[in-house]
Amino acid sequence: MKNLLLASTSTLYKGDYLEYLLPELELHFKDCKTVLFIPYARSGGITHEEYTTKVALAFAKINIIVKGIHEFENPIEAIEKAEGIFTGGGNTFVLVSQLYKCKVMEVLAQKLKSGTPYLGTSAGSNIAGLTMQTTNDMPIVYPQSFQTLGMIPFNLNPHYIDNDKPSNHMGETREDRIKEFHSFNSIPVLGLREGSWLEIKGEAITLKGNLKARLFRQNQDPEELESGFDLSYIK
Amino acid sequence: MKNLLLASTSTLYKGDYLEYLLPELELHFKDCKTVLFIPYARSGGITHEEYTTKVALAFAKINIIVKGIHEFENPIEAIEKAEGIFTGGGNTFVLVSQLYKCKVMEVLAQKLKSGTPYLGTSAGSNIAGLTMQTTNDMPIVYPQSFQTLGMIPFNLNPHYIDNDKPSNHMGETREDRIKEFHSFNSIPVLGLREGSWLEIKGEAITLKGNLKARLFRQNQDPEELESGFDLSYIK
Questions:
Q1: Which NCBIfam families match (chains A, B) (predicted)?
Q2: Which residue of the set A10, A122, A125, A196 is catalytic?
Q3: Cα–Cα distance between B21 and B8 in angstroms, integer?
Q4: In a 3-state reduction of DSSP, which class is residue B208?
Q5: Which of A4, A196, B92, B110 is the most exposed place for a label (fewest CB within 10 A)?
Q6: Per-residue pLDDT for B97 more than 90?
Q7: How confident is residue B214, by pLDDT bands cut at 50, 70 and 90?
Q8: Beta strands at B155-160 and B189-193: parallel, antiparallel or unpaired
Q9: Do residues B131 and B177 make contact, with C-beta atoms less than 8 angstroms apart?
Q10: Phi, psi (5° rounding) for residue A59?
Q11: Are A148 and A127 in contact (CB under 8 A)?
Q12: Catalytic residue among B10, B122, B125, B196
């Protein structure tokens, strides 16, 4: 039975890293003494070590020990033996490239299907969708595929934002970009605002946090979904 | 001798399509009766036909006839025989995918090296750089490579914007994203603001328009470059 939390962001404005999620994480990882951290997205270009240290400090507050996947000789075995797993944000192209290079994409999918508690934030949530094609990130490396874990039957757009440019700027809005995605793809996309997360328990998918989420479907008007809503009907 | 105009945007705020560039285009394409339009980026998901009609209307103002590359049976031949070429904006992933699918990426590079006048706007400018990896676009299709035309010895970031998010949003700024690119790549990146363009004549690269451009190099602080500056030293 799947057991995932997929958060739009790790950090809220003026908040500490993972702070707003800690009460949830304490419950979510209640049976874990340790959590395996996947730092591959390398937020801001920091090293795997630096990123893991930052995560370990946050998890120490709920008495969980964090180990980075890069500390293990065999990343496949590290995933297979993990009590709980967290993939942090950064660049989704870098994350997906590295998951494929280390041959752990499929292993991670299998492990999560078996019920191991998982937390994703930003890029780490993005990879739970069918593809990474609704990321906001720059394509700074070339991944061998855009396919991702498929833990939910749609795609996510983390850090979803309604008005993301000054009105005199001619670049695309976030909504424009997702509409463009639907010129070429039929996969539904959920725009997850900062402060929202999805809770996946088996096949149930619930929108959590105080905000609405914005659902985009091919050839349909976008829809605002309420917090608490079961989203498992979206396909 | 290369002869290219690479514009950040096709359209300025409250302006018509290509309007601000028309005086330049009249000179740039002065020896052309016809211009070949490459609509592959399909701005906003419109059809190749619709996009070409829009471009033809703008070029009619300077008495140039526009033909879309999709109207030709053989796109390679269409490029080889073109008097002038324009690649419009839209989604860079879609554009680059299609250029590779039609096997015209290398043909286009050779044609431009031979001196055929070229105009690029947005995605059409982006592909003149070494790679498309500093695009702002969503990866809505998977191109066979991120390598592009290499008409200039650096990359472009079109629609460059200084403050592209509200201060309480935790996603990356444009500058953050380009810095992340430099965690993994050493290619310089020129942030080209809307209203700026590059003029390439042989090996000379001049910044045009009224605005400064922002140069990003690996491990260096960004630099503001003045309009009129010769940028051919950037490597």
A1: PRK05282.1
A2: A122
A3: 11
A4: strand
A5: B110
A6: yes
A7: very high
A8: parallel
A9: no
A10: -70, -25
A11: yes
A12: B122
Q: Count of CB atoms within 10 A of residue A3's CB?
A: 17
Q: Is residue A138 a contact partner of residue A91, using CB atoms and an 8 Å limit?
A: yes
Phi and psi angles of residue A225, each rounded to the nearest 5 degrees, phi first: -110, 140
pLDDT for position B45: 80
Going along chain B from its start, the domains and CATH numbers come out as 3-225 (3.40.50.880)
Q: For this structure, is A31 an active site residue?
A: no
List chain B residues with CB under 8 Å of A194.
169-171
On the question of pLDDT at B167 being above 90, the answer is no
- Residue B16 annotated as catalytic: no
Q: Do B180 and A45 touch (CB under 8 A)?
A: yes
8 A C-beta contact, residue A155 and residue A131: yes
Contact B171 A136 (CB under 8 A): yes
Average pLDDT of chain B is: 96
- Closest partner residue to A180 among B91, B146, B159, by Cβ? B91
Burial letters for A88-101: b for 16+ Cβ neighbours within 10 Å, e otherwise? bbbbbbbbbbbbee
What pLDDT shows up at residue A165?
75
User: Which chain B residues touch A9 with a CB distance below 8 Å?
Assistant: 170-171
Tokens 């706007």 -> residue: B121
Parallel/antiparallel/unpaired status of strands B189-193 and B213-216: antiparallel
H/E stretch holding A159: strand A155-160
Q: For residue B170, is pLDDT > 90?
A: no
How many separate helices (H) and strands (E) can be counted in chain A? 7, 11
Report CA A29 to chain centroid distance, whole Å: 17
The HSE-up count of residue B173 (CA atoms within 13 Å, CB side) is: 13
Check A170 against B12: CB less than 8 A apart. Answer: yes
pLDDT in tens, B115-134: 999 999 999 999 999 999 99
**What are the C-alpha distances in Å from A165 to residues A171, B123, B202, B220?**
8, 18, 36, 27
pLDDT one-digit tens code per residue, A89-126: 999 999 999 999 999 999 999 999 999 999 999 999 99
- Cα–Cα distance, B40 to A100 (Å, whole number): 30
Structure tokens at A208: 């959590």
* ipTM field: 0.94
Give CA–CA dist A156/A134, Å, rounded. 7
pLDDT of residue A40: 97
Rounded distance between C-alpha atoms, residue B232 and residue A27, angstroms: 58
CA angle A193, A172, A124 (to 5 degrees): 40
C-alpha dihedral over B216, B93, A193, A127, to 10 degrees?
A: -100
A:B CB pairs within 8 Å: 130
Asked if B122 is an active-site residue, the reply is yes
Q: Is the pLDDT of residue A195 over 80?
A: yes
Is residue B44 pLDDT above 80, yes or no? Answer: no
